[in-house]
Amino acid sequence: MKAISAKSYGGPEVLEYSDRPDPKVGPDSVLIRVKAAGVNPVDWKILAGYLDPMMEAHFPLIPGWDVAGVVEAVGADAPEYEIGAEVMGYVRKDEVQHGTFAELVAAPVRTLARKPAGLSWQQAAGLPLAGLTAYRAIKRVGTKAGETALVHAAAGGVGSLAVQILVAQGTRVIGTASERNHDFLRSLGAEPVTYGDGLADRVRALVPEGIDVALDFVGGGVVEVSQQLLKDRSRVASIADGEVTEKGGHMVWVRPDTDDLTALGELADAGKLTVPVAATFPLSRTAEAFRESMAGRTRGKIVLEVS
After folding, report:
1. What distance in Å separates the CA atoms of residue 277 and residue 286, rounded to the nearest whole number?
2. Are strands 172-177 and 148-152 parallel, antiparallel or unpaired?
3. Residues 29-83: pLDDT tens digits?
4. Cβ neighbours of residue 227 closer than 8 Å, sequence gap 6 or more
5. Is 3.40.50.880 the CATH number for 130-251?
6. Is domain 2-127+275-305 classified as CATH 3.30.1240.10?
7. Is the pLDDT of residue 166 over 90?
8. Looking at CB atoms within 10 Å, which of 4, 178, 189, 264 has the fewest?
9. According to CATH, where is 3.40.50.720 located in the chain?
10. In this structure, what are the phi and psi dihedrals at residue 96, rounded to the nearest 5 degrees?
């Protein structure tokens, strides 16, 4: 199979597009013919060695955790899927080596869900990691219908999905973004505010009584700003502030979850959730996709088209 791989840690320049052995399929896994694979910041952070203290990596390493494709073979004890099934998944395993930036991926069934009919292959590939991150953060703070949520980096890959999930459950959403993304946030159902100095005052002008929950998808001190506005300082979740637990909030690290991914797919099929795709690249140009992600200016998801 063709795949993107690296023989050592490094930047996008260490990525190679070449032939790699087809993956073996374990008893609780299926073999997926990949249609598209989502690119996430964690992919180039793994490549750079940033996650080495917490995850074993083996080289040559095929990056990638997000995937959408068609089941081509079924393991000995994987009755959840049949050959020809269209699936999507957040295929994070205990160790890093056999990722999704390849023509074929062996994926444990616990990492997968059925692909929503209402999403393209590119959109389905961009949903799992970002969507599960947003969904888990929302569940951690216990957001309810009728409450008000402040979403930081609301126009990004995770934030834009969080906005839609919250709106679908009847939550009022205040979303931070640059002014060029305000119309985009309004189209998702959020009330936009510009991030940066004076943010707390701008939010108070919209919600004088204070907010119920806050979701931090950007870092940079926004947990403290949120706690100035929260009715209950503990109802803040972050994926970017390593000290949020010490500050009384919740740290979120996404995990594979078939039930949650299925719920996201149902929202998509109901027309309540879509996946904004910022850019697509062929698999052979993964290094360019990484550089685009590293620039940090995309609105929505970056996706590799594989087959």
Report:
1. 16
2. parallel
3. 999 999 999 999 999 999 999 999 999 999 999 999 999 999 999 999 999 999 9
4. 214, 233, 236, 247, 248, 249
5. no
6. no
7. yes
8. 178
9. 130-251
10. -105, 115
